[in-house]
Amino acid sequence: MPEIYFDERVAKEYDADSADMFDPAVVDPAVSFLADLAGTGAALELGIGTGRLALPLSRRGVRVHGIELSPAMVAQLQAKPGADDIGVTIGDFATTRVSGAFRLAYLVYNTIENLTTQDEQVQCFQNVAAQLEPGGCFVIEVEVPALQRLPLGETVRAFHVSPTRLGFDEYDIAAQGLVSHHYQVGDNQLGVFSQPFRYVWPSELDLMARLAGMSLRERWSGWKREPFTSDSRSHVSVWEKAA
Ligand SMILES: C[S@@+](CC[C@H](N)C(=O)[O-])C[C@H]1O[C@@H](n2cnc3c(N)ncnc32)[C@H](O)[C@@H]1O
Prior knowledge:
Layout: H1 8-17, H2 24-38, E1 42-46, H3 54-59, E2 63-68, H4 71-78, E3 87-90, E4 102-107, H5 118-131, E5 132-143, E6 156-162, E7 165-172, E8 177-186, E9 189-198, H6 202-211, E10 214-220, E11 234-241
Parallel strand pairs: 1-2, 1-4, 2-3, 4-5
Antiparallel strand pairs: 5-11, 6-7, 7-8, 8-9, 10-11
The protein binds S-adenosylmethionine.
């Protein structure tokens, strides 16, 4: 089993720390996008967390099931209204299977990068394809690797600098990995948290999809179907399983 980074301490603060991601201006377009793809079918969220998207998607009438590594994140989800309508399986989304077939599977907020090897990312696509109905879709929302913004010859890039919070990504270009370091001041204490990721290119994801019997259907830079261009910092991609 992969290491759990979203432990009790992180889970308790997750919604407050990611408040910008819970803003309806962020959530609503994502939920509409996913609801359109799910139609009358069921949806599977990989890394469901505290239900940021799963709960509003479920309220829209979509049957949602989640896979999640962290019992502490699930406990936060299950304390919220509407959680009874959402099934959760504790496990690694690269390998865990849930009974039933899904019209839609989705993996958002850069979480594919939590799988820190290429093999695990490939396995994740294969695991999703095995659980999709023919013609079903897999959606990933993930950053475009920020290597263009890394100063020449440097390996560390600040992604957040404010009086109470500092965040740095430390790149290992040869291994296509990075470690995000977070330092947060609160109540006279310094919270320190580091987590490893494997950054992944859009074309590499397309190849992983192909290996799993899926092909690219749409790629946008955001949930409102903004065009994906050379300047895009992230993408929302949809792969379809052969009918
Ligand atoms: C950045 S949070 C995103 C949570 C939620 N999807 C959201 O959008 O707010 C990533 C979540 O994925 C879970 N996760 C990370 N790696 C996982 C894995 N291999 N299998 C299952 N869950 C995983 C973490 O525990 C965490 O809850």
